Amino acid sequence: MNGSGGPIRVVVVDDQPLIRAGFAMVLAAQSDIEVVGEAENGADALKLLAGTAADVVIMDIRMPVMDGVEATRRLSGLASAPRVLVLTTFDTDEDAFAALQAGASGFLLKNTPPEDVVTAIRVVAAGESVVAPRVTRQLLDRFAGKLAPSARHDERLDQLTTREREVLELVAEGLSNTEIASRLFIAEATVKTHLGKILTKLDLRDRVQAVIFAYDSGLVSPAD
Description:
Largest sheet: 5 strands, parallel
Radius of gyration: 17 Å
Structural class: alpha/beta
Strand content: 5-15%
């Protein structure tokens, strides 16, 4: 459900009509999900979303006119932007990494089973990410040369307590909440509380963005 208590509003963006139709058919069977629009490229998606409220956008990466990475980047800069799930062929795809940097909350492989697509939409709509912590770390390590850490101290880090910085570092290392709790000898619920405060203080949308911030700010590096 979205914030208003209604169904999760989804827009499907893909240049292949059969893929759009397939998603629409799968999602139409869900009582808590509603497809509110379709688009065949990123530019059309932006036009559609300018007048259509949506909670989640399923975004293909490789499309004519405007690709999914650029469309995601533009969407993420908007107030009350929908969360984006990008579609990719391989989980080590450089474009998947670029989409995460652009603001996507996760990615789906094009061969993802229908039931997993539905679950992913619900997870993202609830404010979580659908990229496993270790996969995020592996993606960032793989394409570390494309990261551009800040040359100076990022002042936003000063907002964090010592414990919150520790939690952020461990999140960036690819540890799950359970693993972080074990490492720091605290309750898992406490880890979730710390992570929530980190996201609020740094104005980040989810765990994936927290990991990318940790790299971009220089808090952690691939060498760590």
